[in-house]
Amino acid sequence: MFHVTERLLLRPAWPEDWKGVLEAIADEGIVRNLARAPWPYDEAAARFFVELPQDERLPHFLVVESGSGRIIGSAGLGEHDGQPEVGYWFARDAWGRGYAAEAARGVVEVAKLLGHRRLVAGHFVDNPASGRVLRKAGFVPTGCIGKRHSLARGEQVASIEYVLDLDEADMLPPMAA
């Protein structure tokens, strides 16, 4: 499955993408904010990531910058406590450019096309920038703080939980630049 946004191409990973993934994510400041990525992040981890099977109900994508064709991150659907969950990561040089919110909104569009009615997401409490991304993508905080395991940190980390009711997502304001 592929999805195009204004500035991004969301596409499946191919085995030869491992070098681009490794170049984009091999930064402890990125990996420590993810639940399932190891640190240090190495060639084996990148190869494993690009070879993950796709679930047609929960697709995950590499995010490619349209102008350069460069892999700048990943965004997609996974599962958390039996519910479809939006997740993402971006290369440090892609931060602050609105790419994460744009990609997250693209994933929300795909989720709606797939018939999902409600999505969840979360971010570690020490990563407030991810909360801003989620709010720009239409998610609202649930008021709950849970615990999620961070493989890179090797411990449980407090996580602020969010939800998006897709029946109401049509009323989202246009994304600000």
From TrEMBL:
Molecular function as annotated in GO: acyltransferase activity, transferring groups other than amino-acyl groups
Domain of life: Bacteria
Keyword Disulfide bond: no
Domain N-acetyltransferase as annotated: residue spans: 8-167
InterPro entries recorded: Acyl_CoA_acyltransferase (IPR016181), GNAT_dom (IPR000182), N-acetyltransferase (IPR051531)
Pfam families reported for this sequence: Acetyltransf_3
Keyword Transferase: yes
Keyword entries, A-Z: Acyltransferase, Transferase
Family, similarity comment: Belongs to the acetyltransferase family. RimJ subfamily.
Name of the molecule in the record: GNAT family N-acetyltransferase
Species for this entry: Qipengyuania soli
